[in-house]
Write a structure and sequence with these properties.
alpha/beta; TIM Barrel; 8-stranded parallel barrel; binds flavin mononucleotide
Length: 557
């Protein structure tokens, strides 16, 4: 980390530092790595920068003269600037640490189909970090079993579960929301909502209680995720009165709970999702995070409790510098996704982990989403090493251009059966029916009357299976893997190039979260120096970080 370079030319100093018997003075780069302590930065008579703690300080600005004309070190050292401490836990909101009982403002977002697996969530819970089980795409029974396992494996630790808006499978959303309340899961990540639904509002209100002094508080905290201001506004506001009344009339909430609900926003934390893996509007974080903060403050003028909502940043975070920049934008916490899929604890497969390790920042593409296929919603996936993106786009094009499977020209149908489905479309329809009869029979009933809907279900079979093939590492289907992934993955690979973290088998989520947050603390200190005119070439590479905080990392190689 050496290569420190002070800004050239005479500078004014803050004052003068005098050594004492118990003071210490070390080279500047050593002080930067000691993120837990604050230091004063000095320039000695030879022009070298150093840093000190202890000693005596006289605050009287003096001009720092060229070294030749400078008094000797015995007469004290000019203080060039101040290097404040910045631990990983100093980044973000202290209230967030308290509210969630976590060590760092570092959150692992949900990853569907159990990619954010029980093992993954447990590993982060042991680190003292909040993460969410990836319930999307799974049946309520599977999600319930995962919640039970988490309760047994990491009791009392921070963890939560995803509640995803599922317009194509409303029963599933309803059942999972009821189960999360029944099991008193302490935190829920609510995502993919464009509008507010009854299962979401019911969970929010049933999760309200009162503290010792009669004030309402959320026993089940809701962390919402949004990429648009209009959606953010809904979460920052009280739940719609029509839904509150409906729940009250049906006896699902008490009148006391209804009153509390009218005084509180729908969420406790709100993540601004920028250019992420999975569902994304590809918005720039630099505009989204401050805009969400301003909106919160505006809504808090009418709904006072909204001012306590924490704003998180997600999308594109895969390096210490990017995480430091999210905190500099005012984020109360950061939320990571793509990089976590590559971890050994994730529910993904080794072939996918290998593909992710070879990914560059531009190796991603937008492709139609299975859960909102008919709406034309897209999500961000891996492009390198798979044909899923172009194939899924082709299916959406056919769906838009034809009203039924029968309308598709015979030659095109043959191509689909040979290249994409690898079986007849009749066989796909049989499999599709088997799936939905158990999961959501209304879908089949609708398809019988509506051939366009039948076509959507058949095409969605491919979109659903393609992520199963990826998660199971099916060698026959590698070219069809659907791997949700954003540019953060490639940035992470560039950051870890040539270090032990480049090896897919070594990517433990605990090491990664600590390295990213420790690196972000170093990066923040570097910027703090730069703002005061001291430019330091600091490279927070994983190797450098491991060397400087071996107690923090599982490995120091
Ligand atoms: C493999 C994968 C699966 C995801 N599945 C979900 C999901 O089921 N629910 C959800 O709210 N977000 C999901 N996301 C989004 C993440 O929770 C997180 O918001 C996002 O990945 C952050 O951006 P990043 O990918 O740039 O780190 C997924 C992301 C990835 C990479």
């Amino acid at each position: 980390m050496g290569n420190q370079r002070a800004a050239t030319g005479p500078q004014s100093s803050i004052g003068t530092w005098y050594p004492s018997t118990d003071s210490i003075r070390v080279p500047l780069f050593e002080a930067i790595e000691d993120v837990a302590n604050s230091w004063v930065v000095l320039r000695d008579s030879s022009g070298e920068l150093s840093a000190s703690r202890g000693g005596n300080i006289e605050f009287s600005p003096v001009e720092v003269t060229p070294s030749a004309a400078r008094p000797s070190d015995n007469e004290g050292f000019p203080i060039i600037c101040w290097l404040p401490q910045c631990r990983p836990s100093s980044l973000g909101s202290r209230d967030f640490l308290r509210d969630h009982g976590v060590r760092n403002c570092y959150v692992a977002g949900s990853m569907a189909n159990g990619i954010a697996s029980v093992e993954f969530v447990s590993a982060l819970a042991r680190e003292g970090c909040l993460s969410f089980y990836g319930s999307a795409g799974q049946s309520p029974a599977v999600v319930s079993a995962a919640v039970q396992r988490l309760k047994e494996t990491v009791p009392g630790r921070p963890w939560g579960c995803n509640l995803i808006h599922s317009p194509a499978e409303p029963t599933s959303e309803d059942e999972i929301s009821r189960m999360l309340v029944r099991e008193q899961v302490s935190c829920v990540e609510a995502s993919a909502y464009l509008d507010v639904t009854a299962p979401l509002v019911r969970l929010r209100i049933q999760g309200l209680s009162e503290d010792g002094s009669g004030r309402p508080f959320a026993r089940i905290r809701v962390m919402a995720k949004a990429s648009r201001l209009e959606v953010a506004r809904r979460f920052l506001s009280a739940p719609p009165e029509a839904l509150v009344t409906q729940l009250l009339n049906s006896g699902e909430i008490s009148s006391q709970q209804a009153q509390w609900a009218r005084r509180l926003p729908l969420c406790d934390d709100l993540t601004a999702e920028a250019d992420s893996g999975g569902h994304t509007d590809n918005r720039p974080m630099a505009t989204l995070v401050p805009a969400f903060g301003r909106l919160r403050d505006e809504i808090a003028r009418d709904l006072a409790a909204t001012r306590y909502v924490k704003i998180g940043a997600a999308g594109g975070l895969g390096t210490p510098d990017s995480i430091a920049s999210a905190f500099a934008l005012g984020a109360d916490y950061v939320l990571i996704g793509s990089v976590h899929q590559a971890c050994i604890e994730s529910g993904s497969s080794d072939p996918v982990r290998q593909m992710l390790a070879e990914t560059g920042p531009a190796d991603v593409i937008m492709a139609p989403a299975s859960d909102m296929f008919e709406l034309g919603v897209h999500l961000q996936v891996l492009r390198r090493g798979t044909l899923f993106g172009p194939r899924a786009k082709r299916l959406l094009e056919l769906y838009r251009n034809h009203r039924s499977i029968d309308e598709i020209p015979a030659s095109e149908k043959q191509r689909l059966e040979k290249d994409i489905f690898r079986m007849s479309l009749d066989d796909v329809w049989q499999l599709t029916q088997q799936f939905f009869i158990e999961r959501e029979p209304a879908q089949i009933e609708k398809a019988v009357d509506d051939p366009h809907h039948q076509m959507a279900l058949i095409f969605r079979w491919y979109l659903g299976k393609s992520s199963d093939w990826a998660n199971s590492g099916d060698p026959e289907r590698q070219l069809d893997y659907q791997v949700w992934c954003g540019p953060a993955m490639g940035a992470f690979n560039e950051w870890t190039k040539g270090t032990w973290l480049a090896d897919p088998a070594a990517r433990c989520v605990g090491d990664i979260s600590r390295a990213l947050m420790h690196g972000a603390a170093l990066s923040t200190r570097r910027e703090s120096l730069r703002r005061q005119g001291v430019s330091v070439a600091l490279d927070p590479s994983p190797r450098r970080i491991a060397a400087s905080c071996s107690t923090l990392l599982g490995t120091t190689t």
